[in-house]
Amino acid sequence: MRYDALPHVDEHPTDVAAPPDAVWHALSDTLDDSFAGPTATRYARLVGCHDRTSSGPRPLAEGSTLPGFRVVTADRARTLVLRGSHRFSAYTLTFRIEEPTPGRTHLRAETRATFPGLTGTLYRRLVITTGFHANGMRRLLTGVRRRAERAG
Prior knowledge:
By secondary structure, the protein is of the alpha+beta class. It has helices at residues 20-35, 38-47, 117-129, 132-151, and strands at residues 8-16, 65-66, 69-75, 79-86, 89-101, 104-114. It has a single domain (3-151), classed as START domain (Alpha-D-Glucose-1,6-Bisphosphate, Chain A, domain 4), CATH 3.30.530. The chain has four helices and six strands, in the order E-H-H-E-E-E-E-E-H-H. The longest helix has 20 residues, at 132-151. The chain is globular and about 50 Å long.
């Protein structure tokens, strides 16, 4: 599976009144808080994710895992790429960090995924078409922004 060639699903941006380093740490901590709990672990097990637990260095680095994800790129204060797969989908979640002006950061989250077969199509409808994924991404980015601005 070539994860870099997966179809684009969506992209969500947010502007943060904090420097990139604060955003990087807030992103890592927020992902840990969001995906490392028992609910995420149970969900990862239920859908058959390869990575079902949190492991590896923190802040997130190449090889670190969260339930449902493995870090494949961790270019501090620039790009964080998570990838994963389960019975219904193969996917990447890419976070890009840019500093348009000193002390302000633009954070974008891009999702790419494929949903093979009938069960994949049904899963896509359940997760993507209903807006569940988009709402979750917006909540995640809001959490990162708030955390970074408090620390920033």
